Amino acid sequence: MQQGPQSPLAAARFVLAIYRRRLLTLRGRLAGEPMVRFESAEGRRNPYPVHESFRTRGPLVPTYAGFLATADYHLCHELVRSRRFGVRDPETNVVHGDIYVDGDVMDRSMLGQNPPEHTRLRRLAAPGFSPKLMRTYETSIEKRVGALIDRVATRDRFDLVHDVAAPLPIGVITDLLGLEDADVAVFEKYGEVMASALDGVTSFGHARRLAVASARLEKVFDRLFDLRRREPRDDLVTSLVAAHDEDRLSSRELVAMCQVLLVAGFETTVNLISNAVLALQRTPGAWQRLMDDPDLARLAVEETLRFDPPVQRTIRVALEDTELAGRPIPRGTWVVVLIGGANRDPGVFARPHEFVLDRYADPETPDHLAFSGGAHYCLGAPLARLEATIALRQLAERLPRLRLAGPPTMRRSVSVRGPASLTAVLG
């Protein structure tokens, strides 16, 4: 797979894109644009006041980058589901508002395609995440969580992210893809770097880190593809390799597909588990309720997805001349979907800024948008829910004295939200 600019012209475009982004960010900062505030230390610590500032400015707000943005639940709901909007501009071929500058992995994957190409790619990956398979994973996930808790149960303190929340989904998805004996720490780093692409390529160093991570993952998968050709199994990678060999999937699409399935398969879940523990510990009485009734873990996961979703925003482009909130939207207009803000829309959710453990016990509660919607609804959502539910249940059952020691160290990313480190003590 190609990495970075492949010609002098591409290199020049790449350099110009980096400096254009910096200039736009500077202008936005000087103008007091709310979008820039997401990138501040305070915005990373607590982005929700920034989401609210968009809401107070109206349903559709212009941004310094020339996009529109909305934190309105109903508009966000429409944007992620409407066939009038996509993730790739068919006129310019720009993906995700030019967030991915020469980002081959995202560009070639499902994340960067509109139907019908997206439909073709998703159908090839979907069998690995069927409801039938989800049921078979439950026992192995329970054993994996139990083993992780065994390792920390005798310690005075541990890092919830690196010792539990990350190893669980990394182990699950690498097993699913057939990457046996995967180094958790290495894949955790790959995931963090690859997920940072959602914020855009911010510097030449950032671009290099992305290229290195992508190239190393490509080598890992190339070895796996060769192995599955020699020793096929009844698994997802074998079926994807067969699709490639039958010319239903290009070489670059095959690598991009597996890289995205790997990273997306654990990045969301790592942050979902960590954010859930944060919310439960910070909300008076919530952890005690979960200890008293561990079956509340499923509802805790669902409320975390609304209250503090791992993915805070996405973006869509108008595929035709249309309108939103009574406003004309010309074809090619990009709109930032502020998921974190939409999930706390006071016109939709009662007590939107409170973590209400059993909120989703009421079947009339509106759906959150944490997993997007429509054609791009998260393929791994059932697996993420299952892993997080089992993790929370066992943490409450086996580590009832768990407490957090000090504030978390938050990730530097904006689009993907969660702690980089979260110290827990037992006592």
Explain what the structure shows:
The chain is of the alpha+beta class. The chain has one domain (8-426): Cytochrome p450 (Orthogonal Bundle). 53% of the residues lie in helices and 9% in strands. The protein is built from 18 helices and twelve strands. The protein has helices at residues 8-30, 34-37, 41-45, 48-57, 73-81, 104-108, 117-125, 131-152, 160-165, 167-177, 184-195, 204-230, 236-245, 251-282, 286-292, 297-307, 339-342, 381-398, and strands at residues 61-62, 68-70, 85-86, 157-159, 314-318, 322-324, 327-329, 334-337, 402-404, 409-410, 419-421, 423-426. A five-stranded mixed β-sheet has the order 1-2-8-5-3. It has a three-stranded antiparallel β-sheet with strand order 4-12-9. It has a two-stranded antiparallel ribbon with strand order 6-7. Helix 12 crosses helix 13. The longest helix has 32 residues, at 251-282. It is globular and about 60 Å long. It starts with 7 loop residues before the first helix and ends with a strand.
